[in-house]
Amino acid sequence: MPAERLFRRQLERATRPDGSIDLDQLRQLVVAWYEDSARDRERTDRAITLMAEELEGANRRLEALVENLRVQNLRFEAALDNMLQGLCLYDRADQLVVVNRRYHEILGLPPGLLQPGISHAEQLSIEQAAGLHAGRDLQEMLEARIALVDAQDGPARAEIFTEDRRRLDVAAQRLPTGGCVVTVMDVTAERAAEARAAAAGRLTSLGEMAAGLAHELKQPLTAIALAAANARRAAERGDTAAALVRLGRIADQAARGGVLIDHLRRFARGGEGADANATADVAAAVDGALTLMGGALREASIELALALSPSLPRVRGDGMALEQVLLNLLANARDALASSRGGPGGRIAITACQTLEGPVVLEVTDDGGGIPASVMDRLFQPFVTTKGPDRGTGLGLSICHGLITSLGGRIEAENGAEGAVFRITLEPAPG
Ligand SMILES: Nc1ncnc2c1ncn2[C@@H]1O[C@H](COP(=O)(O)OP(=O)(O)OP(=O)(O)O)[C@@H](O)[C@H]1O
Ligand SMILES: [Mg+2]
Prior knowledge:
Coiled coil: 48-79
Strand content: 15-25%
GO molecular function: ATP binding; phosphorelay sensor kinase activity
CATH class of the largest domain: Alpha Beta
Shape: elongated
Organism: Falsiroseomonas algicola
Distance between the termini: 95 Å
Radius of gyration: 42 Å
Protein name: histidine kinase
Bound molecules: adenosine-5'-triphosphate, magnesium ion
Keywords: ATP-binding, Coiled coil, Kinase, Nucleotide-binding, Phosphoprotein, Transferase, Two-component regulatory system
């Protein structure tokens, strides 16, 4: 209430009915009023001080929060920049929110060329101006990317080659909050190491097969020697017809040896150079593996049971790679049989059929007692072996795994009633 009105009220209260003023009462009223308002002021002052302190505290907390955020942000940026993968994060509207240094490095772009805030389409055209995506229709590219990501449950992956022949593994995934994350990884060195390991594995298999091969070649050579001796005798007798029959046999046997050596040569060279659209005949791969390994199995008196469905479709992938996988599995089964019985004998079964859903399932089983529990859950990792360093490299199954996944298939292992079961699932070739 304004001071003047208050004073008037005190004055009214101190005015006697006859209009005179009771000065004493007025003095008391004014003093009480003054004390009241002094207390009010004091309370207000205290409230203001408290509020100021509270505000200062809030300010300090806010500053600490901002500082904390700044440090977190720095850490986040440092982590992003030092990732092995290049990374781009897009929001719901397909705008670039985060891009790291590795992304620029891997794609050979000048540092800082891409900045958050641009759209995905703008990013593609900036990249094209910097020499990427040569000759590509960017709109088409963008639509293909979006369709690919939308069609997948998990990340959509692709391996692409850059102009300078590097191999990049690109993965894109929708985020639950909307938007999407794209990562790029340079896998050139990794793939080269895998190829070297596969080549080393092939040579190891070849070494292992030497004994079996010697046996395999000895048969045609013995037949040739015999037929040559017979042909000479027939010629000496002047029996041209008989000599010609023997010479024909020699030619047949020489051809058989030739097939074997040819096969060996193709195997040693490996499947590299096979194109991504290659298809393979499962039965032919089994046949090829047995051509190289059959002798060694027979020598170890191992019984072989073959059950290949007669109507197998061709599968996606390279026949030589499939053959190499089978050779590794057969060598492992042979080793397991030899060590479990401490001598010859045992049984290996190879079966193949097409499942109702389409894929072809190829199984190699043996009765060698099964895979040791100590290696079961690391079986497909490199250098895992129970054979000792002078006997096994422990690379066989990791190479098999790499080859089968590169064919777009799957390889799994379990222990059956009598021994190991290796199951390979392969996609049928299109068409
Ligand atoms: N059929 C099998 N039965 C039992 N154990 C097996 C069988 N196949 C593989 N294993 C186990 O898995 C391990 C790894 O096999 P892998 O082929 O990768 O290497 P390795 O055979 O030991 O060495 P390398 O292949 O160089 O000769 C083997 O050492 C063995 O213990
Ligand atoms: Mg092996």
